[in-house]
Amino acid sequence: MNDTLVIAGHEFNSRFILGSGKFSLEIVKAVIEQGEAEILTLALRRANMGGEENILDYIPKGITLLPNTSGARTAEEALRIARLSRELGCGSFVKVEVIRDSRYLLPDNYETIRATELLAREGFTVLPYMYPDLNVARELQNAGAAAVMPLASPIGSNKGLVTKEFIKILIDEIDLPIIVDAGIGRPSQACEAMELGVAAVMCNTAVATAGNVALMARAFKQAIRAGRDAYLAGPGRVLEHSGEASSPLTGFLED
Amino acid sequence: METGHMSYADGMEAVDSDIMGRVLSMLSEFDYNGFSGREVEQALHKERLTPFDFAAVLSPAAEPYLETLAHKALGNTRRYFGNSVSLFTPLYISNYCENECVYCGFNCSNKIHRGRLSMEEIAEELQTISATGLKEILILTGESRTASGTEYIGEAVKLAAGYFSTVGIEIYPLNSQEYAYLHECGADFVSVYQETYNTGKYEQVHLKGPKRVFPYRFNAQERALLGGMRGVGIGALLGLDDFRRDAYGAGLHAYFLQQKYPHAEIAFSVPRLRPYINSRTGNPNHVHERQLLQVMLAYRLFMPFAGITISTREKPKFRDNIIGLAATKISAGVSVGVGGHKQPGKGDGQFEISDSRSVAQVHEMIERRGLQPVYNDYIRV
To answer: How many CB pairs under 8 A join A and B?
Structure first.
């Protein structure tokens, strides 16, 4: 069965997007291999061209980079970072992150819409990180987003699908890949997100803080696959509260 | 002429802020002996600490819980910073000073060797530092508007911005327009340490000079942010007064600043005056490594997203163990004389360092500990 993730015409076999920046660069390659990830996000502000510990020197060939605009507080700053990213040869994908709160690191949806518009107009493939709000997702789609990346719970919190009901609405209503980003702490939570029908899961802290980073990447890969298969298979009947009553409520009908 | 330490002098900008009032009022009600293990345990079970919880983990009642505090702090540090540890070095460009601070080597009445680097010398120093691979620099001066005016500092910052992606300044407090000027020159981070949050003690130890004005110093971070700076550093000189009270003051200062300026990056420094060896007399001012650790852990639990810098005043063993646990930034290849990277220092240092390791040695240590040395973590936009 050919089931690929398609983002703006680019096809990927893996639905596991891996974050970087929270684990040592020496193991990036092993983690990507074990997770079979094809897309790797990186904070452009961490790039150190020609210098020590430059993440771009550690990324294996064939990986699609998804540089983020971390550090941007406005749409204009995000645009400047994205342009720099393109100049540095990081490709045309960009994950818009506009954050104006150092405490919770929640995305600023309003600036994110503006940034998406500016970046899409310049030909970037834009994947905005957002707080899951249907109206905002529609605006992002209109602004030219190639996918939307709603947060599952606060970044780094590992709390899982706290925003599940709102992500379900995005899945139902938005005709773009929905990629869950931020807050997924365990493979089981990633699996649950995939079962709901999200297109991919992005993970960083949960993998980076594991005792064995590469092994955890493999666990996520398997969980994401299992969830995807379950979604494609169509979940069987799950009775949520009680069994069906033995004497049917509609048994009184006579003609 | 002696300046009243709680009133502004001519030319000092007053910003509209209630932060100092709130911090001082909460400090006046802070009684760290009023806490028991129960409050510490409650704080330890919370995901986010209130100022009350912060006070509890700073209190003597938290001392038996140091190991538990460390475990929780480690989790926070990993969550917010992963295994990364940022590297930087300070560059002193002048040690002239107009203040008479009784605890400081730069005290204007001290007969020390004074010096100020020329622009050529600064460029040479910067080049030499840059060759070590560092991308972040902190430009420091003594506090003298005459010997090291803002234009002189501005020119130095411009030079530094040519070599480094991140330029911070640790100089005398400025008005917001002057901060805006230095921001335009290329500086993005400003550190100003209040030394002590006890206004009475502050008056006793700052005998002369503009630094005597407590509120102008206190509000420097706000003026820096209003001037467009991205981040600010906060700290008390632990050991000058009752360290628990000063750590509480610094934590609250940071807390209210973050609330008012949610976009600002906040960082703590934890300089301390070392007590004499074996002076475990229970003096509330004495900060041994154990107390220093407690303060750093309390900062990490209270403000889990804030950077914490560990200075070369501390011994290598402490520095090596605190990074990744609570500290997120470490200095390396340090000279505290004026200049001293390319040429021998042009003036005496402010204090003595306890860790003279080079950038390469600190890099190697970070990796050996399973952590990730980070040189670049900022893009100027």
So the answer is: 83
Helices marked H in chain A: 28-35, 75-87, 109-121, 134-143, 164-173, 187-196, 205-208, 213-233
B91 compared with A48, residue with greater pLDDT: B91
* B251 C-beta neighbours (distance < 10 Å), count: 28
Q: Is B142 exposed, middle or buried (0-12, 13-18, 19+ CB in 10 A)?
A: buried
- Which residues, listed in sequence order, are joined to residue B136 by a DSSP beta bridge? B166
Mean pLDDT of chain A: 90
What integer is the mean pLDDT of B38-61? 96
Residues 6+ apart with CB under 8 A from A202: A17, A18, A19, A41, A149, A179, A180, A181, A182, A184
> pTM above 0.95?
no
Q: Within a domain: residue A168?
A: yes
Q: Which of A122, A172, A181 shows the shortest CA–CA distance to A148?
A: A181
The verdict on residue B9 lying in a domain is no
Cross-strand bridge partners of residue A128: A96
pLDDT digits (tens, 9 = 90+) for B125-160: 999 999 999 999 999 999 999 999 999 999 999 999
Residue A32 lies inside a defined structural domain of this protein? yes
Q: Is residue B308 part of a domain?
A: yes
Cβ contact B135–A209 (<8 Å): no
B6 assigned to some structural domain = no
User: What's the token pair of residue B337?
Assistant: 């004389």
> In this structure, how many other beta carbons lie within 10 angstroms of the beta carbon of residue B180?
17
Residue A18 in 3-state DSSP?
Answer: strand
| Catalytic hit among A22, A29, A95, A159 | A95
pLDDT digits (tens, 9 = 90+) for B43-52: 999 989 999 9
Domain that holds residue B297: 19-374
Q: Is the pLDDT of residue B228 over 50?
A: yes
Question: pLDDT, tens digit, for every residue of A24-79?
Answer: 787 888 888 899 999 999 888 888 877 888 888 888 888 999 999 999 999 999 99
Q: How many domains would you assign to chain B?
A: 1
Q: Using CB atoms, which residue from A45, A76, A209 is nearest to B79? A: A209
Angle between helices B289-302 and B243-260 (to 10 degrees): 20
Average pLDDT, chain B: 92
Of A46, A72, A208, nearest to B381 by CB-CB distance is: A72
Mean pLDDT of B163-173: 96
CATH for B233: 3.20.20.70
Residue B7 in any domain: the answer is no
**Would the CA dihedral through A35, A40, A45, A47 be positive or negative?**
positive
Residue A152 structure tokens: 């599952």
Q: What total of structural domains would you count in chain A?
A: 1
8 Å CB contact of A51 and B135: yes
Domain limits for position A122: 5-233
Residue of A nearest to B379 (CA): A45
How long is chain A?
A: 255
Confirm if B270 and B296 have CB atoms less than 8 A apart: yes
CA dihedral B173, B175, B181, B186 (to 10 degrees): 30
Identify the CATH number of the domain in which residue A33 sits: 3.20.20.70
